[in-house]
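pinned: reference chain
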Amino acid sequence: MREFYTITELTREFGVSTRTLRFYEDEGLVMPVRRGRTRLFRPADRHLIKQIMRGKRLGFSINEIREIIQMYREPPGEVGQLKLMIKRIEEKREDLRQKRRDLEETLSELDGAEEACVERLAELGVNT
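pinned: its structure tokens
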């Protein structure tokens, strides 16, 4: 296992900008070692970046990700983190289900509007 990763290596690996990694540092999510102006990320930082990226893909906000990471660093530790993660997943799942219901309703309304337009055009003797 490597001792350090450079910011350039991590930007390439995760497909993010240096600005993104600096933002995560500014937010206190990762804490690279500084050697002059150079940031050196430990394997633990790399793992956190991987978890942050996963959280972002799942739709978690930076604040939610911070909360989950913080729970791992402090009591109640991993058990608390896992329980919080389950709770957050359930919340995200319900948000997505509501969005799906909203989309289905909107699509249905669009279908009805289109059907009404086609019927009216037929009444006017216009072929569609």
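why pinned: The longest strand covers residues 38-41. Residues 77-123 form the longest helix (47 residues).
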